[in-house]
Amino acid sequence: MLTDRELNLHDYLAIARRRMWWLVLPTVIVPIITFLVSLRIPNRYTSQTTVLVDQQKVPDNFVKPVVTEDLNGRLATMQEQILSRTRLQPMIERFGLFKSAQGKVPMEELVDRMRKLITVTPIRANDGLRRGDMPGFSISFTAENARLAQQVCAEITSMFVSENLKARAQSAEGTTDFLRSQLDEAKRELDGQDSKLAQFKMKYTGQLPEQEATNLGMLATLNSQLEATTQTLARAQQDKTYSESLLAQQSAAWQASRTGTNPDTLEHQWSTLQSQLVTLQSRYTEDHPDIIKLKREIAKLKKTLSENASASDGLSKDVKKVGVNEPPELQQLRLQIHQLESVVKERSSEQQHLRQQIGLYQSRVQLSPRVEEEYKQLTRDYTTAQKFYDDLLQKKTQSEMATNLERRQQGEQFRVMDPPNLPETPTYPKRWQFTGFGVLGGLGFGLAAVVILEFRDKVVRTERDVQHYLQLPTLALVPPVGAAAVRRAPNGKRRPSREPSSARQVMGA
């Protein structure tokens, strides 16, 4: 019996001897039963294949791949697509899977069963995979027939390989189409900025920031030319005035000699005043009071001379009619005055033109800051559009190269390293496992039965049991008496009886 006292090895061995059949029979019978049950379970065969990921044939430094999603993400996406009903239902019908259940079970349930029989397991690079530890994944399928499991596994593997090629090609082409559309839009934007910049340059020709130094140089040159032209014009006007006064004097003297009058006094006064005027004009401006006063006196004297000259016009006409010519000195003076008038007219026109040019360049210089600000903004927008266009053009070129690689199947792709195998032995049920679990189960059942029986057993068998329950010392032992004292062993030897020790003990009072 099992009590709360401490048991030793002898006690456990005694229990094992008493309950041997309770341990042996379940340990033998239960494994036999489980083995027979495993024979009734249909065999299932699992076909497995390993798919590796071959990297891009062309180095990434030359052609960058456009598909950058990791293997786990792509596997999850492809697994959802391949294990969909639209993909699995035709396979169930084509390979005749679940024949006994077809027509009795809804197709959704059959598809769900098939999903559970398909296993896709990613392989990490640090799992010791051969061939340079290339990443990949394994595919397995379980069926009741070995050949059927191999065929379905091969079909699923082919779907993964083709789906990967299709997905990568679509992704590359989609990326290229998107970049192409963005490039067209960027080109339109660049053309618009180019047109705005061209119109701005046409509108502000000569006022652009890079032309500011030229405008300042031209302005300084024009101012120098204007100053020189002004000085030349002033000298020409002075020479013309002097020549006119000299012509008037000589003409009056010549006319006086023809008419008999002597206007020397008036002519001398007029010549003197004219000389003084020229002298003052070389020193002062036209607004000086002395020059204004002198001009009034000359005007009065000139009026008097003109009145005297009108009186002698008749005589002059008569002289011209009769073919009398002026002296060469007068003709020379008239020619000189005519030339001076031409110079004055030419220099005046040139002076006006220079002033207009100076005004134009001054306005350009004044507007230069505002034009420069607008030009910088336009140039900045154009530079940004140009940079964006160049960047998109480069990306589009790279995407087209990557798309060509995918079309030629030179990019990253799945390669079947181990074709789906034809399983020779079933993967389920593993009968030795069933038998092993039966042994463990039978042994556990026997142990449980022994424990229960020992707890319910009230027999006192040893001296220690007596001392434990009665708490009294043993005074004497009574040996076994009768036929039960000695039992003959099967080999003919005698051995002591195993009767309960209570029949052999005498307890103290």
Give a short summary of the structure.
With 509 residues, this protein is an alpha+beta fold.
Outline the structure in words:
There is one protein chain. Helix 2 runs antiparallel to helix 13, helix 8 runs antiparallel to helix 9 and helix 9 runs antiparallel to helix 10. Helix content is 67%, strand content 8%. The C terminus is likely disordered. The strands form 3 sheets. The chain has a 4-stranded antiparallel beta sheet. The chain has a two-stranded antiparallel ribbon with strand order 5-8. The chain is rod-shaped. By secondary structure, the chain is an alpha+beta fold. Among the domains are: 182 residues; 51 residues, no CATH class.
Helix percent reads: 55-70%
Report strand order across the widest sheet.
Answer: 2-3-1-4
Number of strands: 8
Which H/E pattern describes the elements? Answer: HHEHHHEHEHHHHHHEHHEEEE
- CA-atom Rg in angstroms: 65 Å
Q: Return residue spans where pLDDT drops below 50 for at least 5 consecutive residues.
A: 127-133, 314-324, 483-495, 497-509
Strand content: 5-15%
End-to-end distance, in Å? 25 Å
Mean pLDDT: 76
Number of distinct helices = 14
How would you sum up the major sheet?
4 strands, antiparallel
Kindly name the structural category: alpha+beta
Shape: rod-shaped
Fold topology:
Elements: H1 9-18, H2 20-40, E1 45-54, H3 71-82, H4 85-95, H5 107-117, E2 118-123, H6 130-133, E3 136-143, H7 146-203, H8 212-259, H9 264-283, H10 289-311, H11 313-321, H12 328-407, E4 413-418, H13 431-456, H14 463-470, E5 474-477, E6 486-488, E7 494-496, E8 505-507
Antiparallel strand pairs: 1-3, 1-4, 2-3, 5-8, 6-7
Helix pairs in contact: 2-13, 3-7, 4-5, 7-12, 8-9, 8-12, 9-10
